[in-house]
Amino acid sequence: MYSYLIRRVLMLVPVFLAVSLVIFLILHFIPGDPVDNLLKVGSSPSARAEIEARYGLDQPLAVQYGIWLGRVMQGDLGTAIVARRPVADLILQALPHSLRLGGLAMLFSSVVGVALGVVAALNRDKWPDRAVMGGVLLGSTMPSFWLGLILMLIFSVWLGWFPVSGARSASALVLPVLTIGLGGTALVARITRVAMIEASGRDFVTLLHAKGLSPLRIQLRHVLRHALIPVVTILALRIGWILGGAVTVEVVFARPGLGTLLIKSLSQHDYPVVQACLLMLAMAVMLGTLLGDILQAAMDPRVRAALA
């Protein structure tokens, strides 16, 4: 198990390097120049050259990438060109808002998704199953930004139950959490249903029926335990995707967070901030994938036997 963990961690190194290179190159190929946001109208070429030299933008791309990657490996994310503040301070200021939103959305999608999946599996091919699967199909195909606008229109504009935007109160989290969580709920419900139906056909379930246990007890205490293995794996894999989904939702609801910081910095062509934000999101996806593999190996005896 320890050797497997070490191999998985080492596999993240080339992935991290490849992602960082792609992020760096894409940003530098986007039209626009962050220096233009700092120069006054009619500034001389010497003023532009001075700013470019100050931020290392006059160096070749390969040199810029090497310097940036070396600083990142030391924990230095650089200084924002437009805000003129350490990028780490901007990230630390925005990240708690995104983590709170993403964490609550994951909790919502986990609890509600598993509950709906259990209801659908216990009522296979009956109207509750069809209702849940219909809702799952609708939730999995609905874009988050469109769903956020619909929820805002109904519950904020028409009914006035929740704030339209901002993060001044706990009620302002309800609609953003629902917007992100409903997509994950659909995925978790579908996987829970399929896993429970598959586990119900195994030999140990037949043995439990032969011992006289009630069908509901068998489903909730034994079948569900086996069905949660793929669910936990999927939830771990969704850690990074939930933070990525928060980018769009934060912009729609005008909430502070990593997404708002990313979009604002992207419009200003503030390379260090955008690179740091994208790198954080990419690392969240990589760490979620690693966590999912570890949890699957820890919970599934078949995987542990294959690794032994």
UniProtKB/TrEMBL annotation:
Its domain of life? Bacteria
Q: Which SUPFAM superfamilies does this UniProt record tie to the protein? A: MetI-like
Q: Does Ribosomal protein count among this protein's keywords?
A: no
Topological category with respect to the lipid bilayer: Multi-pass membrane protein
InterPro entries attached here? Answer: BPD_transp_1_N, MetI-like, MetI-like_sf
Location of the ABC transmembrane type-1 domain: 95-292
The listed locations are: Cell membrane
Q: Which residues cross the membrane?
A: 9-30, 101-123, 144-164, 170-189, 227-253, 273-295
The entry's keywords: Cell membrane, Membrane, Transmembrane, Transmembrane helix, Transport
Q: Where mainly found? A: membrane
Family, per the entry? Belongs to the binding-protein-dependent transport system permease family.
Recorded protein name is: ABC transporter permease
Q: Which organism is it from?
A: Cypionkella sinensis
